[in-house]
Amino acid sequence: MIPELGHFALIVALCVALAQGILPLAGAHWQRAQWIALARPAAMAQAVLMAVAFGCLTTAFVHNDFSVLYVAQHSNTLLPVQYRVAAVWGGHEGSLLLWVVMLVMWTLAVSLFSKQLPDAMVARVLGVLALVTAGFLLFILLTSNPFDRLLPAAEEGRDLNPLLQDPGLIFHPPMLYMGYVGFSVAYAFAVTALLSGQLDAAWARWSRPWTTAAWVFLTLGIALGSWWAYYELGWGGWWFWDPVENASFMPWLIGTALVHSLAVTEKRGSFKNWTVLLAISAFSLSLLGTFLVRSGVLTSVHAFATDPRRGIFILVFLVAVIGSSLALFAWRAPKVGLGGRFALLSRESLLLTNNVLLVVACASVLLGTLYPLLIDALGAGKLSVGPPYFDSVFAPLMIPALFLMGVAPFARWKQASVGELARTLRWAFLAAAVAGLITPFFLGEWKPLVALSLLLAAWIVLSGSLNFVERVQSTRAGQTFITAALKQPRSFFGMHTAHVGIAVFVVGVAMVNGYQAEKDVKMEVGDTVTVGGYSFRFNGVHQEKGPNYVALVGDVDLLKDGKVVRKMYPEKRTYLASSMPMTEAAIDTGFLRDVYVSLGEPIDKAQPQAAWAVRVYHKPFVDWIWGGCVLMALGGLLAISDRRYRQIKSQS
Amino acid sequence: MKTRHKRIALILGGLAILGLVVALVLNAFQSNLVFFFSPTQVAAGEAPKGKSFRIGGMVKEGSIKREPDGVTLRFVMTDTEKDMIVAYKGILPDLFKEGKGAVAQGKLGDDGLFIASEVLAKHDENYMPPEAAKAVGDAHERAAANKAATEATAKTLK
What we know:
The complex is a heterodimer of chains A (652) and B (158). In chain A, 64% of the residues lie in helices and 12% in strands. By secondary structure, chain A is of the alpha+beta class. In chain A, strands 3, 4, 5, 6, 7 and 8 form a six-stranded antiparallel sheet that branches. In chain A, strands 2-11-10-9 form a four-stranded antiparallel sheet. In chain A, helix 7 packs antiparallel against helix 12. Chain B has 158 residues and is α+β, with helices and mostly antiparallel strands. In chain B, strand 3 and strand 4 (72-78) form a beta hairpin. Chains A and B meet through helix 13, strand 1, helix 14, strand 2 and strand 8 of A and helix 1, strand 1 and helix 3 of B. Strand 1 of chain A pairs antiparallel with strand 1 of chain B.
């Protein structure tokens, strides 16, 4: 009964979405107040309906209802309850349902927090969002219904893929989806601007916090995914340029460009067309990411057993969305206009350079991701593009971007002077250069890439601090420094926090790539291996039983200077339902380094108590990578909470 | 006139930089393409010497051997038609098993031994890497075609 209720809620939601997609848009065009007024209640109704559908599927999982095919495929009675809930989005159908739930929640949020916007504009934004929702609901109902019954019911479920039985899975997909789906709001605002031909500073101010919010979620989602790959897959890497990672990284790059271009549109009224195009691209890339990940064209943990109809449906949907919005753009963009002019050197031109660099970086990632698929589709053979390609293209593009991050906050709008910038920044640059070039000597070995990265990170932090101090001094007017500093707008804090986050991230990447040490060794009981100043003593393995697995648990002493620092327990699990093996690494996390040990295989399968192949790592500063991402997200949050976005509301 | 000259110089400069970037990207791209070959293709000498490439197929039953150092392994990859010996130093992915599909990336030594730098995991028990599936599928197709051809020859001989 409950699954049918969920299925029914989906069908009703589709009808509401169609009504919400058509009537308010038509109403805004022909100025029918009643049709426009439909938008908000419809958004509310959809949110309720989708919550019901999602609740029904969750109930089926919690109660182990194996008469539902999707539950039987992705759950098991032995699965702990928190993973049964997370299993709702552990497969294709459920993750799409989650996607739509997120979409209607964003729609609801827009309808609730847009009291200050003109009704016709809200109607258009909600209408566009509803059309996107309708497309996805149609997709679910036609090709991927999570409520399909399995008759007769299965006795026992097939279990959730053990790789996904991890806290990372509970949070990673929802965060990532919030980001992906959040760009649909920026997209809807952009389409609205094109439809109405009205794109001004006020428009930019409205869409800015929404775009930043989506960007924050996407940043956190990608960071969580990277962290999960680091500890759960047992490979110890944090980024593999895997096509699925690229699929989430491309919208992030464009989203970052969009956040900056919106700033220019708000402050100066420039870059209007460009902003709209970026908003369309960010959402299109989110859809492309979904297509790549969900259609099964890629080999990865995210590719589920697939049905070719699904791929074709998403492809058609993708073409329809991108095609129609680009056609609309070509038709209406001249109306929107270009906005204010600016000189060759100005804050606008620096931000434009940043945008171009980010877009080129995204294009090169896109090339590397899609080319193998294209060649395969043409039947011209199978090939792949190696990570060295991405590394060698990406780094040179990001170096000027990182350098400009230090300069742009000092440049004046409209026209800046080279002499003035150089005078202000020379000491900061000199200090950064000295710090960057000298520090690597103390780290054991001088490496040019590490030196360059540390220089750029120091540069970002020093110039950012200088910018902060200068601004506080100029607005001080008799107050103490602290009082004046606290009075700065939140968005200003936000910008510098996010930039410092980038610097922290760069330090993490440079240190890991430059100085990490790894060893794969055979260890007899009592053997010791040393890596990066730490010794690991292997004391053998013993067996333990988990809720739905049995584990061989290694007992490893971590030693520093001959003293035991702590014990580490890496595991090799075998899950009962699927008999799938899983490696659980043991990681000692520290501010300046991680040490990492994971079990490979017993040297002799018949004697798991004896020698094992073991992998040990020493990873300096690796946690700074994710720490930097958290700072970036925090910066975004600070920017959203800026008073000027709230003031408008209280004025209305 | 002066502003126009300035603008032309700017546009030319911009195009030059863009051209340079595109050239660099395509160059990096070209030198980092990793092609895929099946064991049969490798046996026929189609694979490049001294350049990294991928092979795919099944890991032959009972073929995994551990060298005395404990972390170097040798195994046989097959597309059911031709076999290839692969050597790999390191820890294999969890789901690497005899009788299952796998993909390895590495270089071919002069002695015909494939030195793998990376062995790719699948993420799910029921999942088969597409490269491995293709290698085995192609071999089966050829076998079927050969069989049909032999039967046809046999018929004409009668």
